[in-house]
Amino acid sequence: MASISQETPGISSTSARLKLYSFWRSSCAWRVRIALNLKGLPYEYKAVNLRQGEQFSEEFTKLNPIHFVPTLVDGDIIVADSLAILLYLEDKFPGHPLLPDDLQSKAISLQAAVLIGSNIQPLQNMGVLNLIQEKLGPKEHQAWPKHFIEKGFTALEKLLKDVAGKYSVGDKLTLADIFLVPQVYNARSYNVDMSKFPTLNRIDQALAELPEFQAAVPERQPDAKA
User: Fold this and answer.
1) Can you give the pTM of this predicted structure?
2) Keyword Transferase: yes or no (predicted)?
């Protein structure tokens, strides 16, 4: 597993070094990269090549026995699963908060994040798609994720259309935005027509202008195309 230091532009490395075990194409790891950038936290990027099976190595299994990325190491603390990591970062590094103080807005942000993280993305992970292709063939390998993305986005569009401002929940960045961007990227890879979801599409375009989001995209990671 390769190790590369990542610095957020304009941020000095004054805090203890965080280690993020990541794969460039993982949408779950992508969420954490965005959050680290938004909070201005320098970290060490530990590349885990899922295509070569590095997640099953003895080193990584000790950190995360379920063999998924991302995994965050903060000194003696090990946190796996993107939502758990994001909430950990929110508690430990409250600067640049990613959850609103208003309870209703906070609930909507969390609902949007969980809708994507629990009801859309897991149906497109590598293990699921490989099994679908093995059992049902290559056509279903494409049709399956597209169906569930469109179903989830239909619900998400309804949830956010009346609360969105510049971003998903008003005009401040929240966890909803962090979860949205990687999922829209995946949606386009499965030829989902984003014009059906004008609120989500508009928010995604606004987020794409932010340098913290730009720095987190898969193609700009040190292990890209690995």
Assistant:
1) 0.89
2) yes
